């Protein structure tokens, strides 16, 4: 690894490539479940779309590996916009591209730097989709994850502990979408009938954060 | 569930190869997934580009040709296309007169077309966008993403297409497209759920003996479920929904649209009932189009779309059109 920043594990391009590999594997494995979640309240394509995008992105990054963590995320975001379609393509593409751009071209960053970049990415998604926490979307997993990450790092937690806390908060956010009435996306057309279903977008977002925690665990001191 | 496919992953590409085989008058880019009118761009003509998820055939590829669209971008099944496709389409059909994007109001379509408009403008193509949002089943409020775009898309594409064919400038073509959307309303009914290739079976549970009122065209369930009704009773509900919202006072274009799984015998019977209800309300129907135009794969059911026309809109509707799915006057 590169020189360690003051607050713990260095997050470099290799780290984010390992994360992308893990994330693509998990999305591939869970794609049927994501599509099933999307059936009663959406249009039954979320898993297939995410799978197509992440497998294409993993191949692209393997073929031409970027040499900064920001570069990996920007390349992934571009691939998602070019291959996913639907709302997930622009929303996840924006999340990852904007997070990557906020990291700049540093060869390695700290967990706190990644946290700040991730917050910028999440806010870009909220702005693009016009959504907020409680609308029954991916933001219901992403905002709690970033908040938990912040609390854990401020409390002196290690990188692995902080990402672990973020994953737990994202999962909690996913469960919290079940009783909500959707206010954004295709599920919003169902009004009251969207109540009682877990949001597929929040679920896929939590899978990506969990992959981050798993990667940090494997790489952590 | 049996389907006439190879594997779910290639259904869109396979269909594009078939469209290319059946329609030599179209240029089909299977790789980039764009269907283009042969000979485009036409000197001085505004280009019309539409697109959306696959599974709604003949929308939109079936409407590419003289008097209608210049290019269509099909996405994956029920998934909007990606910006790369729209940028490729815009570049292929722009003669310098600009391009109109016709977008149905779904989050994915709107976001991808927005990104494409920005990219195409960076490449020097002037873009205008019209958003189609005609579905009265969805209440427009601050808590929803607005009404869905469904059957009125056909009216917008045909009438704006005729204006472009006559040589109207981009702002005028866009203005006519928006005017058509403003005076159009739709309401859909499903008798069965839809089966997507990816899922391999019905995407929601709709028991025998029940129907969904106010469905969209993506297999998303409707807002209300009732015990099965007769064709006449369904016509009463559908016409009331569109007429009460639009409150028309002039002749109408009527589209009685099949969702893909309902035979024409039933659609024509339903059309008779729709005409009966409109006559009871003393609303004259200027033109009626019956068939499967904006479908939802194998879903049984129908939608009713009305468009209140003035002389100009009716003239543009009657103008010649020559596409795989809509053809008259040529």
Write up what this structure looks like:
The complex is a heterodimer of chains A (221) and B (330). With 221 residues, chain A is mainly α. In chain A, 68% of the residues lie in helices and 2% in strands. In chain A, strands 1-2 form a two-stranded antiparallel ribbon. In chain A, α1 runs antiparallel to α2 (46-63) and α4 packs antiparallel against α5 (111-129). Chain B has 330 residues and is an alpha/beta fold. Helices cover 32% and strands 24% of the residues of chain B. Chain B contains 8 helices and 16 strands. In chain B, the strands form 4 sheets. Chain B has a 6-stranded mixed β-sheet with strand order 1-2-4-3-5-6, with helices on both faces. In chain B, α3 links the parallel β5 and β6. In chain B, α4 packs antiparallel against α5 (170-182), α4 packs across α8 and α6 (231-246) packs across α7. Chain A binds chain B through residues 35, 39-45, 48-49, 52, 81-91, 128-129, 181, 183-191, 193, and chain B through 8, 53, 75-84, 106-108, 111-112, 114-115, 137-139, 143-145, 148, 196, 198-199, 203-204, 216, 218-221, 223.
